[in-house]
Amino acid sequence: MTDTPVEEMSFETALKALEDIVTRLESADVPLEESITLYERGAKLKAHCEARLNAAQEKVEAIRLAQSGEPAGTEPFNAG
Amino acid sequence: MDLIDDPQPVSNTPEFTVAEISGAVKRVIEGEFGRVRVRGEVGRVVVARTGHMYFDLKDERAVLAAVSWKGQVARMRVRPEEGMEVIATGRMTTFGPQSKYQLQVESVEPAGAGALMAMLEKRRAALAGEGLFDAGRKRPLPYLPRVIGVVTSPSGAVIRDILHRLRDRFPVQVIVWPVAVQGERCAPEVARAITGFNALAPGGKVPRPDVLIVARGGGSIEDLWGFNEEIVVRAAAASEIPLISAVGHETDTTLIDHAADRRAPTPSAAAEVAVPVRADLLAHVSGQQARLLRASGQMIARRDQRLRDLSRALPRPDSLLAGAWQGFDRWAERLPGSLRTLVSTKARALAETAGGLRASALLRQASKDQERLRSRMLRLAAAAQRQLERARATLPESTRLDRALSATTAHKTAVLGMSTGRLRPEIATARITDARARLDERTRQLNAALDRRLERARHAITQAERLRQSLGYTATLARGYAVVRDASGQPLTTRQAASDATGLEIEFRDGRLKLGGARTSPPRPPKPAPDQGSLF
Q: Which domains are delineated in chain A?
């Protein structure tokens, strides 16, 4: 079990960690104390994953180029 | 030889200067071939430092010099390469100073699809030779990108398809870098967009995409040609941001597809490759949560069950003590009897020993000895008398004998006197006193031994009592538990029984507390003193 703080995990890593915890709790004979720790971490991972999924929001922009040709910013984009 | 040989044939053919004829040829050639298309194989290609390109067009029998000026070269969609079968479009010009004519080429196109494909294959092989298409260069796509950069035409179905598909699956931030997707501007703009996205600093004004999609709808091989250009292929290969190419239809393959980290058959497919389906992920996460809950619940239930099983298997405290109690009772009962047996055994032994030590027996023995002595002395005196008479009868000189006999008799008498003197009753009395003292000593030892045995037995009983107390429920009371009884003093073990009872009595460590109900019986003493019984 890694000790990476859940908040710093990417969605993919967090999901993988959650799956690992579930598998361990389901199959292995985990000591009771450890199982509580695992469960709490699992709940945290689940919340993290869900937050990452719920944060999904559509936003479409187009690159605005400056005179020099460098990207100067973005502007709302409307697909014609 | 003729006399009037005309040294110079006179002709009315006008004379040209070199410049005149050169100019005339120029006029004819340029007038006649103002705009031509010439098909041929490209020969040697030289690009001068000025940017002008000189090359040959040739076939089996002839060679035609060709030149393209710098500006024309830049606008060419296809640059002539040696060995390429092309159709060059331009006009014929002459170059007076060297008496040369040449084709001034404005544009070059591959001669037919076969030639184009051959060129594409050659270019592909060259770039592959550089390792730009190696599988080892491909980077994995992020599982869940936060920002997606799209390089495509801002108008048209392609960007709409991509945005639609993203919205359906997983809405994310999309940044479009508008480019021309065909024509001369296509390749440089696409390459510029790819490098431009990569140049964005993380956390800058414009968010840096986690993945790029380079997309274009279907079209002819010529329409898609910009995506075969080396500049585009190199930009795609150099992109640090993972890149998905989706150019043309599924059957179209452009060189950017080889350089991309992932190739999608269509723009919509590129959107599918780029993001997972959010609803699926949400369902998966909640599924994991459900499993997490179930697994932990089951685990606790499993341990609970195990605890119950073990509790059932645990022997009851009273049965644990039963054997010990039984053994204790058995030995405690035998203890007084064994002492009694011991004492009587010893008493009997003492009586036997002391019986032989009676004074009368000693006196009887002494008189028996005296009687024996007296009879011996009588027999001795008679024997001496007989001997004396025999001597008197046989020997005349009996005086000596007489004297000797008297001496012997006197000696014997003296010895007898000494023996008789030693036979005193005081000796017997002293031995009896001695025996009595020994008897007293033994009796004292016996009593002491008996006391020690009693002390040991008492100690064992105390130990057993302490054990009984510590294993009894009163010790549990001392740890803070309480026993609930009904009014009649029967212990209650269920809530139902307690609610049915008329009155409750709670036993604590330091006494009992009555709650409600009539006081029907006096409280029992908390701990009846164990009956240790009598030893004797």
A: 6-76 (1.10.287)
The domain tally of chain B equals: 4
Name the domain boundary from B431, B446, B471: B471
Cross-chain residue pair B282–A53, CB shorter than 8 Å = yes
Which residues are CB-contacts of B480 (< 8 A; sequence separation ≥ 6)?
A: B509
Q: Are residues B267 and B178 in the same domain?
A: yes
Amino acid symbol at B171: P
Q: Which of B426, B448, B471 is the last residue of a domain?
A: B471
Question: Do A80 and B156 lie within an 8 Å CB cutoff?
Answer: yes
State the best of B144, B172, B285, B305 to mutate against chain A, taking most chain A CBs within 10 Å: B285
DSSP H or E run through A32: helix A32-54
The confidence band for B515, taking pLDDT boundaries of 50, 70 and 90, is confident
User: Are the beta carbons of B278 and A53 separated by less than 8 Å?
Assistant: yes
Mean pLDDT over B519-530 rounds to 51
Whether residues B456 and B508 share a domain: the answer is no
Q: Based on the domain organization, do B54 and B23 belong to the same domain? A: yes
| pLDDT tens-digit series, residues B460-484 | 888 888 887 777 777 777 778 888 8
**pLDDT for position B477:** 79
Contacts with B140 (C-beta within 8 Å, 6 or more apart), sequence order: B242, B261
> Helix, strand, coil % (nearest 5) of chain B?
55, 15, 30
* Closest approach of B167 to chain A, Cα-based (Å): 7
pLDDT at B346 over 80: yes
Q: Decide if B323 is inside a domain.
A: no
The residue segments making up the domain with residue B260 are 132-276
Please report which confidence band the pLDDT of residue B519 belongs to, taking 50, 70 and 90 as the band edges: very low
Run of H or E including B149? strand B147-152
**CATH number of the domain enclosing B74:** 2.40.50.140
Q: What is the pLDDT of residues B189-219, one digit of tens each?
A: 999 999 999 998 888 888 899 999 999 998 8
Q: Please report, for the domain that includes residue B195, its CATH number.
A: 3.40.50.261
SS3 B268: helix
pLDDT value at residue B117: 79
Cβ contacts of B163 on chain A, cutoff 8 Å: 60, 79
Q: Give chain B's mean pLDDT.
A: 84
pTM metric for this prediction: 0.52
CA distance B29 to B291: 87
CA atoms within 13 A on the CB side of B98: 7
Do B107 and B137 lie in one domain? The reply is no
pLDDT at B520: 47
